[in-house]
Amino acid sequence: MTLTDWGWSREQSTRYHDMTRTTQESMDIYRGVGASMVDGMSLEGQLRLAGLDWQVEQSDFCYGDEYQHQSGNYRKAIYRSDTGLLLDTVGDRWTPHQNAEIIGTFNEFCDRANIELEHIGSLREGRVVFAVARTDQSFDLGGDEVYGKILLTGFHEQGKGHRVDLMTLRKICGNGLTVPVRTNGKIISHVGEWDHQRVLGVLESAKTNFREFHQQSEQLAHTAITIEEATMHLIQAFGEAGKPVEEQPKVVQTCLRLFQGQAKGSDMLSAYNTAWGLLNSVTEYFNHHSRSSAAQTHLNSLWMGSKAQNQQRFMQQLVGVYNG
Q1: pTM strictly above 0.90
Q2: Are residues 104 and 87 in the same domain?
Q3: Does residue 26 surpass a pLDDT of 50?
Q4: Residues 46 and 60 both lie in one domain
Q5: Distance between CA atoms of 259 and 236, rounded to whole angstroms?
């Protein structure tokens, strides 16, 4: 089935194929996960193209001849309507939020903010649904351009609310890190119906996060550090105190080489022997040098797993020392 069979005009179909051929950065990041979007596509078309045109169904959860709720511990099973795949077992208060609600609200936010939806898809067999848009926010550190994206992640699992993250990326290399966006210390939970307005509010908060990231990055870019300081920071974050560099874990040794000139953009004034350059040696390592062979596994870790947490903690470490 072609895109024109879904009601797209020939012009829209051509734009889509041109974009997927030329947007190398997106192709490298997503590596076949989900689908790139173009303006004018209907919500139904977006969901179909990204393989998200299914419902979250639910039914009583039982084993043997007894329903579990008869023992006072009511659970229900949630599953995909298209394949019947069990997504999780959840409690009575858990409310299913559908892919159309999640992506539809993100579409509305993009329309209001006048930004373009870039990519939507799913991870872990549909348990995680995501949408990414590039914002109109950016800053320049002496030719080192950094721009922002917004990531909305919806979870079809017990105990995991939906979340919004700011994604910051360097244009020169595509390296970046995610910064969780929170309002009042809360996430978007599955208790109750889909809270349309709350999601829009959290998405809007990402702009404030980007301004804060800009201020912190400016300070790091203007902070010169020695190779000894860089080594100390890397060992403190990822290594083993008291051991020489050659006996440190791979992450320490690789990031040190990247900082000393092997990283993309390491020769720029903003990155050369600066705290900003050290941060970007770490982001390059987790974005490219520690990639899993499976794109979904890499994205899951880079956005919300150990790779994201390692990068966030390292930035906090540098900001705590040099922006204090």
Answers
A1: no
A2: no
A3: no
A4: no
A5: 16
CB 97 within 8 A of CB 194: yes
Among 66-70, 92-96, 132-136, 181-185, where is mean pLDDT lowest?
A: 66-70
Quick one: which of 158, 180, 187 has its CA closest to 309? Answer: 180
Residue 304 predicted with pLDDT over 70: yes
Phi first, then psi: give them for residue 193, nearest 5 degrees.
-70, 165
Q: Pairing between strand 75-80 and 56-60?
A: antiparallel
Co-location of 272 and 184 in the same domain = no
**86 and 106 together in one domain:** no
User: Does residue 15 fall inside a structural domain?
Assistant: yes
Beta strand extents in 45-155 (DSSP E only): 56-60, 62-63, 66-67, 75-80, 86-91, 116-123, 128-141, 144-155
Identify the domain boundary among 206, 231, 250.
206
Q: Residue 95 gets which letter from DSSP?
A: -
The domain total for the chain is 3
Does residue 51 have a pLDDT over 60? yes
Same domain, 84 and 176: no
Q: Examine the domain organization and report whether 27 and 11 are in the same domain.
A: yes
SS3 96: coil
DSSP assignment of 140-183? EETTEEEEEEEEEEEE-STT--BEEEEEEEETTT--EEEEEE-B
How many whole angstroms separate alpha carbon 134 and alpha carbon 119? 9
Q: Domain limits at 281?
A: 222-322
175 contacts 285 by C-beta, under 8 angstroms: no
Residue 58 vs residues 101, 160, 190: alpha-carbon distances, Å:
17, 17, 14
**Could you tell me if 80 and 56 are in contact, meaning their C-beta atoms sit under 8 angstroms apart?**
yes
- Does residue 213 lie in a domain region? no
207-214: Cβ within 8 A, 24+ apart: 207/135, 207/137, 209/166, 209/179, 209/181, 210/135, 210/137, 210/148, 210/166, 210/168, 211/137, 213/148, 213/166, 213/168, 213/179, 214/139, 214/146
CB atoms within 10 A of CB 86: 12
